[in-house]
Write a structure and sequence with these properties.
The complex is a heterodimer.
Chain A: E1 5-8, H1 12-19, E2 25-28, H2 34-39, E3 47-50, E4 59-61, E5 67-70, H3 75-80, H4 82-87, H5 89-96, H6 101-106, H7 109-113, H8 165-172, E6 174-180, E7 183-188, E8 211-217, E9 225-231, E10 242-251, E11 254-263, E12 270-271, H9 273-279, H10 286-296, H11 309-327
Parallel strand pairs in A: 1-3, 2-3
Antiparallel strand pairs in A: 4-5, 5-8, 6-7, 6-8, 9-10, 10-11, 11-12
Helix pairs in contact in A: 5-8, 9-10, 10-11
Chain B: E1 8-9, E2 12-19, E3 22-28, H1 34-41, E4 60-63, E5 66-69, E6 82-84, H2 97-105, H3 114-124, H4 134-140, H5 151-170
Parallel strand pairs in B: 2-6
Antiparallel strand pairs in B: 1-2, 2-3, 4-5, 4-6
Helix pairs in contact in B: 2-5
The structure holds flavin-adenine dinucleotide, iron/sulfur cluster and FE2/S2 (inorganic) cluster (FES) (2 copies).
InterPro entries (chain B): 2Fe-2S-bd, 2Fe-2S-bd_dom_sf, 2Fe-2S_ferredoxin-like_sf, 2Fe-2S_ferredoxin-type, 2Fe2S_fd_BS, Aldehyde_Oxdr_Iron-Sulfur, Beta-grasp_dom_sf
GO molecular function, one term (chain B): 2 iron, 2 sulfur cluster binding
Pfam families (chain B): Fer2, Fer2_2
């Protein structure tokens, strides 16, 4: 592994000032994305600021019912936290569908949101990749693009966003708190991940030196049922080909509230807002779920090897909505 | 400034941690992984390097009790932590129930994945959040790949070890 300097931080203020807005410095939390990519020579920070000891480990329920999660809470702790399993089962299911026990024990909430794509050309320093090396081209366009995205792609990048946790956050709604050299600010989770467009290297609405300190989940939808369905090449420890996170609340036989987000198919965690809108006020029946799936995938565009993802995602959506409905209590 | 973390010494950093119950002090550059420290600095070669990218689980150790991939963990981030490797699994009393069960069930062929499998298994058996049925155990163990395909026997060994741990607990043996 290439060499770098390391500064351990004990407080948020110390971390932000040690980072200093320097583009060559990286925060390191669990390290499961960063160390992997430094070994591959894909990420090349000259300095790392260790944030793993920051006191950002709390999960607390706010007075308005929202859930405030520290950026250093591990994926394991968050998935098993009693407030999460009780009020945000979609989040728990999505996290546990990702990676392995060991990786979830290391991975943090903030790091998961910031994880990079698994596109094999991005991970290969010898390949052309606009995300890694802006302007170099994209070897995935006419390469082995079976794992790549079908929604939100551009002629410059078709990489899929790999996170399962982020699919749940997109469906549930959340706010990120960032602290940087110029102070603190908040941003809606749905505005944080960028579409690739002509700058696939700019993945997040984050300024140099900004640290995610908290993720605050919107208050839970009462009586809703939730289901995260992940379809992949093997039963566990594999990234999604397509996944669907669904939440449904039913009242007097019609859908009062619907939430739907997709993984493995979008260039960012994919919030299917139009499909949600189409579901509200309809009876929770398969025919309506199929219509919603059609809306969610209307703009899908495939390359040579990933056209199978369109029917796969359609089926994932329908099944996840059916399962979420079964888990909901009609009030 | 709080100096409970590693401090700078030229390009190298000082690190204090506990490995298998023994306090260790080292000076090392920041780009050294926990796996490299264990194998190359401390001679604890039971922990294996398979993929070196978090994809196989051969390097699994326990850090403050939790199973982790030592290949993706910077050693300097383990300041003050307690690391247990396969060398630390047995006690004065003898082999750990997981080790005995692996022997009994022939839960390996080449043995390369075995230290990692046993570290994951020992953590899993202490984690009450994880179910004890086949599906839950397989899911919790999926971060450990076995090239020889010894999965069936590994699963049986874990069930046996769980029973033994439970009966030991009843007898007030180990808590
Ligand atoms: C083999 C393997 C399989 C995996 N499978 C899955 C899977 O199936 N599903 C899935 O969802 N994920 C999967 N992952 C990815 C894993 O979930 C991420 O690597 C992990 O969540 C990243 O968190 P971390 O704390 O380790 O991040 P780090 O590696 O520490 O950091 C990642 C990035 O985020 C930045 N960063 C970290 N914390 C902050 C912060 N608080 N504020 C601002 N920037 C920050 C870092 O600078 C770095 O650029 C897998 C990973 C591996 C290696
Ligand atoms: S799809 Fe995106 S990440 Fe992959 S090679 Fe093309 S530009 Fe790079
Ligand atoms: S060597 Fe660490 S997971 Fe393979
Ligand atoms: S016993 Fe050979 S890899 Fe598992």
């Amino acid at each position: 592994m290439r060499s770098f300097a390391f500064t351990p931080a004990e407080s948020v203020g110390q971390a932000v000032s040690a980072q200093g807005g320097d583009g060559d410095a990286a925060y390191i939390a669990g390290g499961t994305t960063l160390i992997d990519l430094v070994k591959l020579d894909v990420m090349r920070p000259a300095r790392m600021v260790g944030v793993n000891r920051l006191p950002l480990n709390d999960v607390e329920r706010l007075d308005d019912g929202r859930l405030r999660v520290g950026a250093l809470v591990t994926n394991t702790e968050l998935a098993h936290h009693p407030l999460v399993t009780a009020h945000f089962p979609l989040l728990s299911q999505a996290i546990l569908a990702g990676a392995s026990t060991q990786l979830r024990n290391m991975a943090t909430t903030g790091g998961n949101i910031m994880q990079r794509t698994r596109c094999p050309y991005f991970r290969d320093a010898a390949a052309a990749c606009n995300k890694r090396e802006p302007g170099s081209g994209c070897d995935a366009l006419d390469g082995i693009n079976r794992m790549h995205a079908i929604l939100g792609t551009s002629e410059h990048c078709i990489a899929a966003h790999p996170s399962d946790m982020c699919v749940a956050l997109a469906a549930l709604g959340a706010t990120l708190t960032l602290v940087g050299p110029h102070g603190a600010r908040e941003i809606a989770f749905g505005d944080f991940h960028r579409l690739p467009e002509d700058r696939p290297d700019r993945e997040h609405e984050i300024e140099p030196g900004e640290l995610i300190t908290h993720v605050t989940l919107d208050s839970p939808v009462e009586g809703a049922g939730a289901h995260y369905l992940k379809l992949r090449d093997r039963a566990s420890y594999e990234f999604a080909l397509a996944s669907a996170g669904a939440m449904i609340a039913v009242e007097k036989g019609v859908i009062r509230e619907a939430r739907l987000a997709l993984g493995g198919v979008g260039t960012r965690p994919w919030h299917a807002q139009e499909a949600e809108q189409a579901l509200r006020g309809q009876p929770p029946e398969t025919v309506n779920f199929e219509k919603a799936a059609g809306i969610a995938l209307r703009d899908a565009s495939a390359r040579q090897h990933n056209a199978f993802k369109i029917p796969l995602a359609r089926q994932a959506i329908v099944r996840a909505l059916e399962k979420a409905t079964q888990a909901a209590t009609d009030s | 400034m709080d100096h409970s973390g590693p401090t700078r010494e030229g390009g190298e950093l000082a690190l204090a941690l506990t490995v298998n119950g023994e306090a260790r002090r080292l000076t090392l550059p920041p780009n050294v992984t926990l796996l490299e420290v264990l194998r190359d600095r401390l001679g604890l070669t039971g922990t294996k390097k398979g993929c070196d990218h978090g994809q196989c689980g051969a390097c699994t150790v326990r850090v403050d009790g939790q199973a982790m991939n030592a290949c993706l963990r910077l050693a300097v981030m383990c300041e003050g932590q307690e690391v247990t490797t396969v060398e630390g699994l047995a006690s004065e009393v003898g082999l750990h129930p997981v080790q005995r069960a692996f022997l009994e069930h022939d839960a390996y062929q080449c043995g390369f994945c075995t230290p990692g499998q046993m570290m994951s298994a020992s953590a899993l058996l202490e984690d009450e959040r994880i179910g004890s049925d086949d599906a839950a155990v397989r899911e919790a163990m999926s971060g450990n790949i076995c090239r020889c395909g010894a999965y069936k026997n590994i699963l049986e060994a874990i069930h046996t070890a769980r029973e033994e741990l439970a009966s030991q607990r009843k007898e007030g043996g180990i808590s």
